[in-house]
Amino acid sequence: MAQAGGFSFDLCKRNEFLEARGMKGPGFTKTGTTIAGVIFKDGVVLGADTRSTAGTTVADKNCEKIHYIAPNIYCCGAGTAADTENVTGMVASQLELHRYATGTQSRVITAMTLLKSHLFRYQGHVSAALVLGGVDFRGPHLFTVYPHGSTDSLPFCTMGSGSLNAMAVFEAGYKDDMSKEEAMELVARAIRSGVMNDLGSGSNVDLCIISKEGVEYKRNHEYLQGKTYERQFPQRFAAGSVPVVRERVYDIRKAVTVVEGEPMEMES
Amino acid sequence: MLHRPTSHSAAIGPGPVPSLANPGPALEQQPRHAPQAPSCGSEAFCVDPQALSSSHPRQHTQYPYVTGTSVLGITFKDGVLLACDTLGAYGSTKRYKSFDRLRKVNDVCMVGASGELSDFQYIMRLLEELSDDDFCMDDGHHLKPAEVHSYLTRVLYNRRNKMDPLWNSLVVGGFHSGKPFLGTVGMIGTSYTDAHLATGFGNHLARPLMREKHHPDMSEEEAVALMHECLKVCYYRDKNSINKFQLAKVTKDGVSISEPFALETNWGFKLFQNPAANAVGTW
Amino acid sequence: MATALPVRAQVPAAGQATKQHASWSPYDDNGGTVVAVAGDDYCIVAASTRMSTGYSILTRNKSKILRLNPKCVVASAGMQADMETLHKMLHSRHVTYQFNHRRPMSCPATAQLLSNTLYYKRFFPYYTFNLCAGLDDEGRGAVYTYDAIGSYERVGYGCQGSGKELIQPVLDNQLKAASPLVLPQQQWLSSLPLEQAVDLVKGAFVSAGERDIYTGDDVEILIITKDGIRTDSLQLKRD
Description:
The complex is a heterotrimer. By secondary structure, chain B is of the alpha+beta class.
């Protein structure tokens, strides 16, 4: 059968029937999140915390929430982890093809339009709440995209379960025409506010600074807290605790030859 | 005989009946209670008998009507500050714009309320009765802040046990024996004390700023500046708030509640004016 | 006929009232974890101090432990308002007991009292998950673990609250308690020296603080021996 694009809805009716009879579907990893962005004098700063949760437990203590869209555009995602990753990935790929076809830099509103039309089509079932930022030939842009497909264009914005905590910091500290350093500090402070006050957000602060000069992706820009206690009597297993039943030694050099290679070209 | 629908149906609630909200055949089949019916022949103005006899409990006490938004409180070196706006909102209507939500209990203690304001007035009556008793005893004794806090916790918790909650989050501020006291009670009796507090929306908007900037030996000026900043942020982001605030202070010199004042706000950031100017073609 | 007319004039049946208004529930979960470990001549009780509702932190410093006397404490997780009420109730019953009997209530007696107090609210339960811990009449560590309506059991160690699923298996593994099904009955007290048991409890809380969003800020640790109650504390992550 020819594979058409888009989601497979084959089992929706069956699942609906089963759920009506008491079956519970699998849970999803949500990024109960604080994400934020600010426009400064000559660019955009995006920020995100790094906790992802499944219910009330932390699923990942250092996940990445600032996704690549284009060399000049990045996007923070809140909501269901799979949705944010896939929706940003799809748009990134469409823009890549568009750049091959046109040979021009991608524009932020193009990314925004692709995102919102995809999200609107699925009427909120693709639960991605996004903060999209980038710099194109018209200058810096910052958008929020809601799961139902509406968008905002604002000088500062926040999303996720910690959005109010972060917004409090922005409302108290935002100024016109900030320098890059001021903007970075403000966004980091906003994310910290989410990390410290919102239980859905936690761990570290990621930043991404986009300006005409290029992108600085500062993964784990701030590492806020380490473990507060080391065990004094840790559980140690003596060597030989696990009995060796059988031993077989392979000489891997016979099967594999090591060749010096060129390092692969990487994105900045 | 002109038929008019009852005005106290459980479905419609009190007040005039909207023209489309005909209670329908179910109500019309009710036996008429002749003794209560006015002689003009219209329906009696009484509680809908169906609502009274129905098996489910009365529900109109289980949601608020006129509400106040966040109350903020912080301790400082020699006292406690409480602050909130003066709005009594009816749903999202700004219904009462000069409602005093901060009230003095006695010389060492004050209370601020968010939530249902009629319930707050009832609570204040309880506290006034206690203060009156103290006055009549004439032994110089009065309730300490921690006692008022504990009392309110019991009142709210007991009402939740009756499934008839007082729809309030209260903040108690006081100063006694050289120490500031700041505590809060929620409508199901959840209570705690802390160096800074906020109810409702304030918990999301003001608390982060307080956690950043508060320290217990703040001067009064620092505390007032922090409070103003928090109030302003709450006003910017809480749609049920207005720019008319009161600030109350308890120190060793007693309780003082300020006249209402407004804070200077700024809605004119450059990029607010045409945020999509650089994004021609934005929907 | 008016039959086809207004849907909104129908009286909603109980339980299916339209959600136009903020709905109300008498219960809330304020999170937090409590742990107790009994040893041959000690008992450790620890509780996290974060109090939260939903995704927000109400306060970072709220004790969950009621100290009744130097040989018996009660630690509770769950809903704070119910916890406070339960603790006030136990405290006042303990005061009355002392007036009547001229001595503090023993740990096993407190355990039975707590069970009765919980079961008394069988049909509108205290939403609390309790541990009663201390030293028994022979001076050995004693831990009693409860459900919300008063079913209880004496155990060698116990854990309740939001971090229970994370901590209980670690205690099971490390304290090597014999199954209560093994006959003849075996030692179920911890054979660990006190310092190692405290270390274990701290390690368990740090791990729970990493993965349970409701466990954090600080841990209040009480060490109960025949000489009285000693306190210790441990800071956890605040995010």
